[in-house]
């Protein structure tokens, strides 16, 4: 997840982009960047928050009536200046911001390298911008068509906004599985953003782009929408009714509730590209090289704190049950201080949302010094734990602002489920039919979470009714848990 903004019209784009990025900063804060069209495209980007970008730009010229901006939540490549968005194609013609994950970036990158392309960053995004350039050059088409054709070759999730030196003022936007809103101003100037927060103070007229739709946005002209299959779409313009205050949390009362509702998406992102139903396997890229170490380990030891420790307990159940490898779960803060016995045949796996938990990091370093293989399950790409470990898997849950963990926990459990299945399959400790059943079951979890969230109104009524009770009345227990309660006598 990240925040993307765009503007094209007659105003100066820079102040609109910066303000928009500040509103979207909850979506990602690894790096920030803007590209402004002033005859040619001028790029400013750096590691850190929007305030760091402003300091980095300082007194530099920020003129341009079209531009795009991005605040990143890294998925491919550590948070640094080079990996920051916007990304520019090799010739410098095309500039792009992206929210999401291009799953097949690796094969496209190899093909482009074969054709002479070089890459500056480690991101999946830079592959897409060069693919658009290659298609635009070969097909001699305009930017919108080049974007459309490129997206037909892309597997994954994206919201993108693209500019080209050869079409100043034009923005091309597209989305699949990541949000994108287009605001239409009174003078037919256009505002784009990941949510309506950056737009609402300029216009209430918005179009929510649907999956598979592409927008060609030219100031002064009507918004043109078409699909990746090249079918024209009539824009459905909606009026924003929400207040700015609400929008900052996307309409939720608080971030925790919003994050609870993000779980169908975040669990899906944890499984994406790893749970391979059609091939009947699980592939955890960052763990694959250490598969044998785990299969032959004396013990797998999870080290974690707080919520991550609870996720580790679930991991223990799953791995012992499915892969028959002994697992221990340790509180990192105890483990690091108690001179534990660790050997080279142990695999120590740290679980941490931030990847910065000090005790967990210290526990890992202790295990590393004793010769153990150390792995990580973290949410923040490029975090200290992810850099310290031999290998590992990201949870890809997006930034978690709520202090009580919700979606980070379920994403951890999703990755641990994948790990247990992968080890069980390799070890041969799960029968094929059971493996397939579990794989299908896991694949259905995001949709089931979505369904569970639909019971919210009912949960609210029930909690209001019983919030002061010390126990559930027996009549309700019978209703809710008929098999457990049976026919008791109500006290
Ligand atoms: N996958 C892209 C990257 O790692 C975009 C991540 C995002 O949505 O912020 O740079």
Radius of gyration: 25 Å
Spatial shape: globular
Distance between the termini: 52 Å
Major β-sheet annotation: 8 strands, antiparallel
Strand content: 15-25%
Mean pLDDT comes to: 93
CATH class of the largest domain: Alpha Beta
Provide a quick synopsis of the model:
By secondary structure, this protein is α+β, with helices and mostly antiparallel strands. The protein folds into 3 domains: 3-240, Glutamine Phosphoribosylpyrophosphate, subunit 1, domain 1 (4-Layer Sandwich), CATH 3.60.20; 246-453, Rossmann fold; 456-490, no CATH class. Strand 20, helix 13 (358-369) and strand 21 (373-378) form a beta-alpha-beta unit.
Structure characterization notes:
There is one protein chain. The chain has 491 residues and is an alpha+beta fold. Helix 3 packs across helix 4, helix 8 packs antiparallel against helix 16 and helix 11 runs parallel beside helix 15. It folds into three domains: 238 residues, Aminohydrolase, N-terminal nucleophile (Ntn) domain (Glutamine Phosphoribosylpyrophosphate, subunit 1, domain 1, 4-Layer Sandwich); 208 residues, Glucose-6-phosphate isomerase like protein, domain 1 (Rossmann fold); 35 residues, no CATH class. It contains 19 helices and 22 strands. The chain has an eight-stranded antiparallel β-sheet, with helices on one face. A seven-stranded antiparallel β-sheet has the order 5-6-7-8-12-13-14, covered by helices on one side. Strand 12 and strand 13 form a beta hairpin. The chain binds glutamic acid. Glutamic acid binds next to strand 6. The site of glutamic acid has 17 residues, from strand 6.
């Amino acid at each position: 997840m990240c925040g993307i903004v765009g503007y094209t019209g007659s105003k100066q784009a820079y102040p609109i982009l910066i303000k928009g990025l500040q509103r979207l900063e909850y979506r990602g804060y690894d790096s920030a960047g803007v590209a402004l069209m002033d005859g040619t495209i001028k790029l400013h980007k750096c590691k850190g928050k929007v305030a760091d970008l402003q300091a980095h730009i300082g007194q530099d010229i920020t003129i341009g009536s079209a531009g795009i901006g991005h605040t990143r939540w890294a998925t491919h490549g550590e948070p640094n200046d080079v990996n920051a968005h916007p990304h520019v194609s090799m010739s410098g013609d095309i500039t792009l911001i992206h929210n999401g994950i291009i799953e097949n970036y690796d094969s496209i990158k190899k093909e482009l390298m074969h054709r002479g392309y070089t890459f500056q960053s480690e991101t999946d995004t830079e592959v897409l911008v060069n693919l658009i350039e290659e298609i635009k050059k070969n097909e001699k088409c305009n930017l919108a068509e080049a974007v459309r054709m490129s997206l037909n070759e892309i597997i994954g999730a994206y919201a993108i906004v693209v500019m080209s030196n050869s079409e100043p003022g034009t923005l091309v936007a597209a989305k699949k599985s990541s949000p994108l809103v287009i605001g239409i101003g009174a003078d037919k100037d256009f505002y784009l953003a990941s949510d309506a927060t950056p737009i609402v103070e300029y216009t209430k007229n918005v179009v929510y782009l649907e999956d598979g739709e592409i927008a060609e946005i030219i100031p002064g002209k009507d918004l043109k929408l078409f699909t990746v299959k090249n079918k024209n779409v009539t824009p459905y313009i909606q009026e924003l009714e929400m207040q700015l205050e609400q929008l900052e949390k996307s309409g939720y009362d608080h971030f925790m509730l919003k994050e609870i509702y993000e779980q169908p998406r975040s669990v899906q992102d944890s499984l994406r590209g790893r749970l391979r139903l059609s091939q009947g396997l699980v592939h955890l890229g960052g763990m694959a090289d250490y598969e044998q170490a785990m299969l032959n380990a004396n013990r797998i030891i999870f080290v974690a704190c707080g919520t991550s420790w609870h996720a580790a307990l679930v991991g223990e159940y799953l791995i012992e049950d499915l892969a028959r490898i002994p697992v221990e779960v340790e509180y990192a803060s105890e483990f690091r201080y108690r001179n534990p016995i660790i050997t080279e045949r142990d695999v120590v796996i740290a679980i941490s949302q931030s990847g910065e938990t000090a005790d967990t990091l210290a526990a890992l370093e202790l295990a590393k010094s004793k010769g153990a293989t150390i792995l990580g399950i973290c949410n923040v790409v490029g975090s200290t734990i992810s850099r310290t470990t031999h290998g590992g898997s990201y949870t890809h849950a997006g930034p978690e602002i709520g202090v009580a963990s919700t979606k980070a926990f379920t994403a951890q459990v999703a990755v641990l489920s994948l790990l247990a299945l992968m080890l069980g399959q390799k070890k041969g400790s799960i029968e094929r039919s059971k493996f397939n059943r579990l794989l299908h079951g896991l694949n259905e979890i995001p949709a089931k979470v979505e369904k569970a969230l639909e019971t919210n109104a009912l949960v609210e009524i029930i909690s209001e009714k019983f919030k002061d009770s010390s126990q559930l009345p027996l009549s309700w227990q019978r209703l809710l848990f008929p098999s457990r309660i049976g026919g008791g006598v109500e006290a």
